[in-house]
Structures are given as structure tokens and as C-alpha cells.
Amino acid sequence: MLKFALLGFLLRQSMTGYDLATVIRNSINFVWPAQLSQIYRTLAQLEDDGLVVSEVFPQQGRPDRRVYSATEAGREAFGSWLGELVTELDPIRVPFLVRFFFSGSRRPQEIVTQLRVMRDLHVRQRDRLANELPGYIAEFAAENNVNETDPVIWDSVRRAGEMNAQTWVDWIDETIERLEKLDENSPPST
User: Fold this and answer.
1) Any idea which of 55-69, 149-163, 172-186 has the lowest mean pLDDT?
2) pTM
């Protein structure tokens, strides 16, 4: 999936690996996070496969700047991927929920403490998606040659992330309320 995300961004404009990391962090990171090392590994593979090319620009007193561009083969591969009809749901893997599933052996207050930490994380993500990302979307759209549909789609993806984060907050609040009703003095089951 990362290779197609990188191709999609590179079809908009040529970028360095660092530029790609920044644009991912400010756009799709909440649905497809990528570390800089993953991005560079994937760019190298894309270049080996002839889907991107790079050009090195020497810099004084700093590492050389390597700028990547999508090739025609990259455009075709991206177009083919984009045109594939999605007919199945992607499996959802949430390590926290696996851990939570088995947490019945802990005292309810210990579980609530963990849930409050998770709630704070989801509130921060929701707020970032609601307050920061619309500006990034508008800025990226203004700086690049985009059609009128792109910003609407990008904002719809952002909104899905915001709604997902709020769903987590609601679920956590409900679960905390249920756990707090349990007798704190009852021993945990084993």
C-alpha cells in the first residue's frame, strides 16, 4: 500500500523522501502511517522497479538532496491499482483491543486507567484531524495543480479519521462507565 501512496504523491509533484514523510504525516498518517526508513526503502524498490526515478542535487554543507519523480510506468501502475474495484473489507488489527480483551484479570480501576490513556490519545488525534488537517489540505491544494474533486475527497478521508477517533472516545467513555459500576473490592478473576 505504501508504494501506491508514494506514487500518488509523486504523481502530484516531485519530492524528496523527507518531503514525502511530511506530506504523509499531514494527510494519510492516521490510516497509513509510515516511518522515514520505510519510505526510503520503498522508494529504492520503486526505483529498482522503474516506477520512479531520482535526481541528486548537491548541497553545500548538507547531505545531497535526492528528488524522486514518478515515471510513465509508475503512472500506469498507479492508475491500474486505483482502478481496481475494492470488493472486500480490509482486516482490522488493533493490538490494544486484543490486550483489552484479556484484561479481565486486572482490577477495574487498573483497566480504567489504561482506557483513560487511550481516550486522551484518541481525543488528541480527533482534535488534530479536526483543527490542523483542514489547513494542510487547503494549503496542499493551493500549492499544487489539483482538480476540484481532490480536496473534497481528501477532506472526506480526514473526516472519516475524525469520526473514527470520536467513536473510540464514545466507546471508551461507555466502557469506563460500565467498569466503574463494578465492585472495586471484588478480587480479579484468573
Assistant:
1) 172-186
2) 0.78
